[in-house]
């Protein structure tokens, strides 16, 4: 296509891109040209009229009209005046990028020439264009500005600044028929000829750029505000594309960097991307977002519908990698100390039985809650300054490793309206590869967020179990330290509620409070020591309700009731006698599992041995062989045994039940156990007293022997 342009053309900083233009483009010849070039060398120094004069000569030789101008483009008025003096009108401004390369430090020079220069010249021309109701402005940007280019920060910024300028000029000029477009040419120039191979410079001839400029300047061309890459005979248009994005905050909530991180993939997903062309379109999206957030309910709004919609939602899965360091920090966090030699196996990675405390099982799943996971669930508009830990259930399916990577998947199991607060139940499964390692149920109490008309109870909630109505079987008292929370938080619960006095005050506490899971860890290890010889493989599950806050430095008193494999627990703060953990229990795996036998002795044999101890201890109960254990005239247990079948029954209170057990024990050890000299639990765990068969029965024996020792 041949483009005929009847116009006044001003070129500034002409450079090589247009030096040869008159040779191939007749259109220059048909214009009235004002050719500007400062004539600098590529470092911005020097001054020569050669470049501008050469172009003027060539245009004139083609029969065109041209005048040269050698002023700096900052003197835009002088340049425009040159055009007006010569031709009496202003048409098009061509911005070329024949800019001498300079150092990064010379920011001001680059900006003055490219950005400020464009501003000055355009401003000088603007009113003339407005008056004549026609204008075509071409900003010459650079791919260095569009894409960036190593070492060209100042140049890139100035060049893309031209595009920003052009965008606004396109809007402001539209009604005066002033169009402003931007080109980013790839062309051989004074700038690039020193760095490009000659044949490439040749193929990037200015002749392959100028026709685009001429078309954009044509009065028939409607293009306005466009950005074009051009070079080597190819032209492409660029535009903005915006991903659908993702809303990362909820009503009445802080927007957190964690939420941004967790939704990064959504934010950057260009599926169904929009192509906004105006700031209004951009704003429209923000308005839509605001109305979506505002219409959200949630536990702190008026949320029946949206809170219900949160149920069943999955939080982003999280991965948690740990080594022995995290296991040890956790053990210290829940009060383990080298003062107690039994604790060494949890504190020293070189210990032959080095183990991870079972309650460490809450830590991998905690990552799923804490790191913005909970904040990301629509409908749960949680005010995190009002969050308290309400309850926790943990069940292990295998002993925890001391290092590895575990992944956790959390689901909102239910949202309850407790009047004074809302309770969010979260089920979290934690896996090692495909294998389920543990399950947690978190119960998050959001103070003051109740009263939204939701349901009060849930069959999804792990039930609390009250302790038996008797004095506890065992009590362990342990002190937390003033820095207990500061230490515990290193395991990943960075909630400022536990360390920052001003944050604690916002929640209505006079001082930072201890993490619920810290007290939980204390109580669990008390049970593990008391009833499982600190053997983590005995731990099965734990359930706890946090009834009142504990302050770091207070002493925790764990009361325990043993009912078979279930150890009921309740914790008090010793200084205040306030119950802080209630309805709680730890389930243990049966002690006898895997015990094995070397030789077998049936009840009859036990009875015989007990009988040998003396008549006060053993009596024949009935025709069937039997015995009872008494001391000081009181009966601890009555057992009967069917000699023929080798099975027996226990009669008395909680011990009653069918017995079907065999024992292995040396005479001496058995005597010591019965006489209370050897702790039955220790004997049991030391392998001196082995039980096989009905596990409940073995537990009962332990209790019977313990009771006997008490008598
Ligand atoms: C990313 C986030 C996930 C991570 C979460 C954990 C982050 C941690 O950093 C935070 C912590 O560790 S906080 C420290 C540990 N927790 C505490 O100290 C809370 C102590 N408990 C309390 O203060 C009150 O029980 C209190 C304030 C909870 C409730 O007291 P009241 O408002 O007086 O309630 P009450 O009148 O006694 O009972 C009303 C209904 O609520 C039920 N309820 C009470 N305590 C509950 C609790 N702890 N958990 C769940 N439900 C509880 C009651 O049963 C009652 O309901 P219903 O009538 O149906 O039985």
Primary descriptors:
Rossmann fold; alpha+beta; single chain; eight-stranded mixed β-sheet; binds 3R-hydroxydecanoyl-coenzyme A; ten-stranded antiparallel β-sheet
Sheet with the most strands: spatial strand order? 9-11-12-13-10-15-18-17-16-14
Structural class determined from secondary elements: alpha+beta
Rg from Cα: 42 Å
Provide the CATH superfamily of the largest domain: Hotdog Thioesterase
CATH-scheme architecture of the largest domain? Roll
Low-confidence stretches: 1-9, 11-29, 91-99, 592-605, 607-627, 640-648, 650-664, 689-700
* CATH fold assignment of the largest domain: Thiol Ester Dehydrase, Chain A
Shape by Cα distribution: elongated
Helix coverage percent: 25-40%
Oligomer type? single chain
Q: Biggest sheet, in brief?
A: 10 strands, antiparallel
CATH level 1 class label of the largest domain: Alpha Beta
Q: If you average the pLDDT, what whole number results?
A: 76
Strand count: 24
Helical segment count: 24
Strand percentage lies at 15-25%
List the bound ligands.
Answer: 3R-hydroxydecanoyl-coenzyme A
Taking the alpha carbons of the first and last residues, their distance comes to 114 Å
């Amino acid at each position: 296509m041949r483009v005929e342009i009847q116009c006044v053309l001003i070129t500034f900083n002409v450079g090589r891109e247009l030096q040869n233009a008159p040779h191939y483009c007749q259109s220059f010849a048909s214009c009235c040209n004002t050719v500007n070039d400062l004539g600098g060398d590529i470092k911005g120094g020097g001054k020569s009229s050669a470049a501008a004069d050469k172009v003027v000569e060539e245009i004139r030789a083609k029969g065109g009209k041209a005048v040269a101008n050698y002023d700096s483009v900052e003197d835009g008025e002088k340049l425009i005046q040159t055009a007006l003096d010569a031709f009496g009108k202003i048409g098009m401004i061509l911005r070329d990028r024949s800019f001498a390369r300079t150092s990064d430090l010379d920011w001001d020079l680059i900006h003055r020439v490219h950005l400020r220069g464009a501003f000055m010249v355009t401003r000088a021309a603007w009113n003339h264009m407005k008056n004549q109701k026609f204008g075509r402005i071409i900003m010459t940007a650079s791919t260095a500005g569009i894409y960036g280019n190593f070492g060209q920060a100042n140049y890139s910024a100035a060049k893309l600044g031209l595009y920003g300028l052009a965008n606004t000029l396109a809007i402001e000029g539209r009604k005066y028929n002033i169009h402003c477009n931007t080109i980013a040419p790839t062309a051989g120039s004074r700038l690039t000829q020193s760095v490009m191979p000659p044949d490439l410079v040749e193929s990037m001839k200015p002749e392959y750029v100028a026709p685009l400029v001429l078309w954009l300047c044509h009065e028939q061309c409607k293009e306005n505000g466009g950005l074009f890459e051009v070079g080597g005979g190819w032209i492409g248009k660029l535009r903005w594309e915006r991903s659908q994005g993702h809303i990362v905050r909820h009503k009445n909530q802080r927007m957190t960097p964690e939420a941004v991180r967790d939704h990064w993939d959504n934010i950057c997903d260009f599926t169904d991307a929009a192509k906004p062309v105006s700031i209004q379109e951009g704003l429209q999206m923000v308005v839509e977002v605001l109305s979506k957030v505002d219409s959200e309910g949630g536990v702190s709004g008026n949320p029946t519908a949206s809170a219900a919609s949160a149920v069943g939602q999955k939080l982003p899965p999280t991965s948690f990698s740990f080594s022995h360091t995290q296991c040890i920090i956790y053990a210290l966090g829940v009060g383990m100390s080298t003062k107690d030699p039994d604790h060494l196996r949890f504190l020293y990675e070189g210990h032959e039985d080095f183990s991870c405390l079972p309650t460490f099982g809450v830590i991998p799943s905690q990552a799923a809650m804490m790191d913005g996971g909970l904040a990301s669930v629509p409908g749960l508009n949680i005010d995190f300054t009002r969050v308290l830990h309400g309850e926790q259930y943990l069940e292990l399916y295998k002993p925890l490793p001391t290092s590895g990577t575990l992944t956790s998947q959390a689901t909102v199991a239910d949202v309850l309206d407790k009047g004074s607060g809302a309770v969010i139940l979260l089920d979290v499964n934690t896996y090692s590869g495909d294998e389920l390692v543990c399950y947690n149920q978190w119960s998050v109490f959001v103070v003051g967020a109740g009263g939204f008309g939701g349901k009060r109870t849930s069959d999804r909630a792990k039930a609390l179990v009250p302790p038996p109505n008797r004095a506890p079987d065992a009590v362990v008292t342990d002190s937390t330290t003033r820095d207990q929370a500061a230490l515990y938080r290193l395991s990943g619960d960075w909630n400022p509620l536990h360390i920052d006095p001003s944050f604690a005050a916002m929640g209505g506490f006079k001082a930072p409070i201890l993490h619920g899971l810290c007290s939980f860890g204390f109580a669990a290890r008390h049970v593990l020591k008391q009833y499982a010889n600190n053997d983590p493989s005995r731990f099965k599950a734990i359930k706890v309700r946090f009834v009142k806050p504990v302050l770091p430095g207070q002493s925790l008193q764990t009361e325990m009731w043993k009912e078979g494999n279930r150890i009921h627990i309740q914790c008090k703060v010793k200084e205040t006698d306030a119950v802080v953990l209630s309805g709680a229990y730890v389930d243990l795996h049966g002690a006898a599992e895997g015990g094995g036998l070397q030789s077998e002795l049936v009840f009859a044999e036990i009875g015989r041995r007990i009988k040998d101890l003396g008549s006060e201890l053993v009596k024949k109960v009935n025709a069937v062989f039997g015995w009872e254990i008494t001391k000081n005239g009181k009966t601890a247990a009555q057992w009967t045994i069917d000699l023929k079948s080798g099975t027996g029954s226990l009669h008395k209170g909680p011990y009653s039940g069918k017995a079907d057990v065999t024992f292995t024990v040396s005479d001496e050890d058995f005597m010591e156990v019965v006489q209370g000299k050897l702790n039955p639990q220790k004997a049991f765990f030391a392998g001196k007293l082995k039980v096989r068969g009905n596990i409940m029965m073995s537990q009962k024996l332990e209790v019977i022997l313990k009771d006997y020792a008490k008598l």
